[in-house]
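Lab notebook page, bench 4
Experiment: in silico fold of construct C2
Operator: M.H.
Input chain length: 180 residues
Purpose: comparison with the prior construct
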Amino acid sequence: MGSMPRKAVSVKIALALAVLAGAAALAWAQAGGSFEHVEVTGAWVRPAPAGDNSAVYFTITNHGAADVVLVAAETDAARMAEIHETVMEVAMVDGRLVQNMQMHHVDSLVVPAGESVSLKPGGLHLMLLGLTRDLEIGQSITVRISAADGGVLELVVPVSQGEPGEGHDDHAHAHAGHGH
């Protein structure tokens, strides 16, 4: 039996370490150019058992000259993925002011040119509905985010209790799919 070339082994080890370190190790635009100038940092997903729901969080920065409009998401780790926003609703009930946190589906999310949008607990997030498997700390999932112009951003997102800490390679850059 032959041995693997040293370079191939090194690449596989480096990729495995990136995932284990809680890195958002991969982000690629597979179609279209909408993600060519996009950077994703701090990506993580909450641990949860199969059948439950979870949420993906990250900061997306648009270094380009045009807005990027996120319209859909999908993952093999859940039956459905949707962009949600948590908002505080205030109402009068029996003469009392009542506050209640509610999640609402968001049809699209604009990342303005030259700006960042943070998806974080208590605000915008990518909701994973009906997990198809357990999400355990140390694992990762792949999430595909679609833009209005057909561009697709693929992220490898670590399962974690919180944003990857300092010292981790938590940067993920998107690259345009040229000629695919």
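Observations: The chain has one domain: 6-173. The mean pLDDT is 81.
Next step: discuss at group meeting.
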